[in-house]
Amino acid sequence: MSIVLASASPRRLELLRSLGLTFVTRPSNIDEEAWQLDNPADLARELGLEKARAARRPDDSWVIGADTVVAIDDIVFGKPTDQAENRRMLQRLSGTEHSVYGSIALINGKTGIERCEVVHTLVQFHQLDEATLTYYLSTGDGMDKAGGYGIQGLGAIMVEAVRGCYDNVVGLSRSRLYHMLHHEGVLPPQERAHCAL
Fold first, then answer.
1. What pLDDT does 37 receive?
2. Which of 29, 58, 89, 110 shows its CA 20 to 30 Å from the CA of 98?
3. How much is the average pLDDT of 115-128?
4. What residues does the record give for site: Important for substrate specificity (predicted)?
């Protein structure tokens, strides 16, 4: 059985490896900026599916597509284009709770079956002072990440609380992916359940 991850994200690769799966990566390289939807959850869903569709080949058993959308009041915060935009994003997130929508799309290359689920996590930021903001921006850590920060790295200094799945904020909910794959018969039953933790 061939499993393909339609992503080059080192964070998603690490999360998927922790499930004990054998897989290959095949980044889809779709134009995410071309997608404009009013609802952030719908945007995450469509981007996850589109990534999986773009990477799919007829002989693939399962292709996994994933996307992460950060939003406040349906205003989406994508990946910053420069440090000035990253600063504006973090200033807006400062002292507030925002939503992280993470999609997981599964497409069977042989049968064409498509399945996609969206996980919703709430993240509360500390009120950021200038010294913290300047320090984080100086590292460049947030430049390739939705919302302009990475919770699994130095971005953790800005986070006060997480309500929901932490992995979802990193880039891929292992728990949800496990149950989706288990439903499709890809992962064995309970003896592998510990992998999702």
1. 76
2. 29
3. 98
4. 11, 68, 152
CA-CA distance, 12 to 112, in Å (whole number)? 23
CB 5 within 8 Å of CB 25: yes
State the pLDDT at residue 87.
98
Provide φ and ψ at 130, rounded to 5°: -65, -40
Residue with more model confidence, 164 or 32: 164
Give the catalytic positions in this structure.
67
Going by pLDDT thresholds of 50, 70 and 90, the confidence category of residue 30 is confident
142 pLDDT band, cuts 50/70/90, is: very high
Q: Which domains does the chain have, with CATH numbers?
A: 3-196 (3.90.950.10)
CA 38 to chain centre: 19
pLDDT reported for residue 102: 98
Buried residues in 31-61 as b, exposed as e (16+ CB within 10 A): ebeeeeeeebbebbbbbbbbbbbebbeeebe
* Spatial contact of 30 and 67, defined as CB atoms under 8 Å apart: no
Sign of CA dihedral 117, 77, 124, 151: positive
Which residues, 6+ apart, have CB-to-CB distance to 25 below 8 Å? 4, 5, 6, 7, 8, 13
The DSSP letter of residue 61 is S
